[in-house]
């Protein structure tokens, strides 16, 4: 048998296989692994499901052999087969196996196919992961298949999971922790980490679930780096670079100084080039020494490494290169014109040091311009045409004219080349038969007979229409699901097939020309090698269909469902995919021309090695779109560097703006990477129902959906989120909570909500299961109007209640007008909003802690700080004129905070401290840092952005964590001043906020990320887990420890606040409004200001009676006084070995009770004892008094505090009156009473009155109270408490 010609092809195999006897089939299957991949798999897969056991077993063995052949062809390509061809064959082979998997298939058969896919390697693993994602196979099948899987293949399969979006990863977290836990081979782990570098992938923190001993960089140094095989040494270097945030300098210096193998030196250059900018400044000199004597390609690699060391700005590096190895300058020009990461650094330097590029470095700017001309020639030509009058001479004008003419000519050629493969189709159309010919053939041609039956709505079971010519028929609405349809090599022209339903059809090499397939349904239909020209398939459903090697021209697939479709090596040109569902579709190795996927659904779509030109892709799908080696600008006709004319500097500036705008896509990709890690960190800590709410929220704002727990939402309520398309995961969660109702999955035609972001600790190492979520809902207020906004607020109120009741999570919605936010106007202060107190500081915190949940991105996220500082507004104006860039909103840039804002911010933090002491300490520290480094250091949000914007191709764990960066910044600040006490307090407050008490709480997160990040922090900060656990158990500390730490925090906050107040209070123009200042200062004063009779409010880090082992009251016998005092004493348990401590000394029992209740130290379970005393006061009477006070005041203290109350004079809201509590014996008269009252500012007071002349009833007492308190009448909420022994006095 000839391997290249086995006697069948894709179209003829079925017939060929039928004609073979059992032995011939067995022989063919045994030989199949030696055939071309696709052809070899056809008999193998046919035998795997054979009813004959011997043939089936042979098929399984050959399937295993074939998968190893496929993998070998990729790992070690043959000389006569390029790598890309081997990869394309792997995709086609894996797709063929994948198409055989059905949900109804037996467990053992699924296992055979999944095992085969996993054995293929990366390509097969992708299809295996799709199978579990789309629920074609269960997790049990996966577990069964990986039992005996080689560790490299196990890691390859896990790698597919790591590329999925966070919501998908949440669903399969447990399974893949199991997968990684089974990895046992250190060499496999090293190989995998090195492969991550080669693929330009980030080190996902989830990989720390691999046993630590298998990813120990020291073992790599001791083994791979000492190997005689240079390939092992290269793999070791790459693996170490991915395992460590920074490779030890000694490793790199040794390789640069002593390594004789050029490939290893090239690997070192590549590692430096792909590191974070400025990570290796120490390596500048060693690399420069190599560059000075290196040949061309090594010198260019060394140059790129020099740039990324960050030792010198780009223009300085260019000066050095011109003086040491000027021969590589033309190659550097071409590298820069590729608009790569190297260009990104050049552009940032051009933006910061414009003058440095006016002289000899002008060629660098021109190289960037040439790159822009190659990528967007029409845009640059437009600018040149508009500014042709600025050309300094006729010669320059002619050069510009020549460029414009040539550009237009090349664009015309490119467009002609797109249409070229299809131009002869119409001329090759079969001629329309005459009626006479038709009638003559109708009785002879069985194909024509079947067509005539179809025309008469008679549907034969056998619809073998191979090579048929079908034209001008109306086959709309036919149900062919019970027929066996074969249209191989058929030609279908000018035929109406709307609403047709086909199942299991074969349409290989079929021509569809001038066709209408709107609303049709095709299940399990093969369109491989088919040609579609002028075909409309709007709203058509293609379920599990294959279009491999198919060709499309001028087709309309708007609204079609092509999810999970296979377009491997397809040719697709000038076709529309508006609102098309392409979830999990595979376009690997396809040729794409003039297509727009901007509004398509592209979740988990694969474009590996695809070649695109004039195409647009959906921004929302960027997070989980597979685009490895996708060429976005694969044009056949390109300009050369020599075509570039001399350009006036004024025109250069305008073109530079265009280039800055182009690199927004680069910045956006960087942001989405870090946003993905923030989402993972959030899902890591969320409880299951909290994660469900987080996913569900955008859908609830996108549509006016009534949850079962809420009332109907008025249809006029503004809804729709811009650029948002609910994912498959959101749809799944939605069905779970919406009572099984269908979830509408669409883009909103007229969205009212521009974006949804969360801000705060969610998504960082500081998140806990109790963390609340603050959402920014961005809108255009003027567009919506007041009535619509009121409806939206009502919807938010309902969602906040539902979130707490149904999902056990506290959320707060902040409605943000984008124009006011841009201008730093956040309204007035309230319980949750800082308003004018800290406008720019609020924006800084937002940018630093935000998670993009849905909608458009802030432009700030996509611009490097070095570019935005001078060009932010110009770039925003520019992108608004460009197509496809309305995905950004302008919330304003930030590089500094005016000094007049810090005073208001300090008051706000004092106010927030009353509620959240731990966070406020950290934020007050940041204020102190900003003030003391004013004008010398960048804002923290920009430092944070620089971490991930210039992170290199590999974003390391922790580089994206806003809280880690915040704390490290503060530690460095206090270290410079030697303030170790503040560092200790800062970290103590951080771990108090986390509240981690034991190892299991570290280990129990969904992905295990919390343990990983905190472990890293503890090593850096030199803290132990035991210390963290002890702090985390603060709610069980004795009262003395709680009180001591609380006073330390109070002292820190008051000291910082007082310092800030003294610095800025007298500034002429404070940023905070007068009303906000008055309200916030009043609230702070309420806490600290002493007033006669005021019950002091402690700012305890933990309240409740759990901090006390035993409380008792003791009467202090007076010395020379008529009345003694009462003392509250805490007696710790014997185990603590601590002496008893005095908590409070007061003049009355009521004062102690008021203090306990006001400070939330008394609960309904508190039990106090009393030492014997000579007074008439009994233990029973105290218990009843405190219980009555607790029951009376607790509901009042639980009410939410209103900011409006602080804008008015305070008034008494609740009054408790204890009467005759100290009466020595019943006398029938009132001799004393004590008032405990709460006012509208939440202050509690106490007054005791001893009457000189006892009275007989309460009326005189009431009048006395009103007079003393300045009241016309007692408050409505007033109660009298009379001890039982004095009850006779009240009668």
TrEMBL record:
Highest taxon of the lineage: Bacteria
Annotated InterPro entries: 5peptide_repeat, Adenylate_cyclase_1, Adenylate_cyclase_1_N
Domain Adenylate cyclase class-I N-terminal residue range list: 668-860
Chain coiled-coil ranges: none
One GO BP: cAMP biosynthetic process
Gene Ontology molecular-function annotations: adenylate cyclase activity
A Pfam family per the record: Adenylate_cycl
Protein name from the UniProt record: Adenylate cyclase
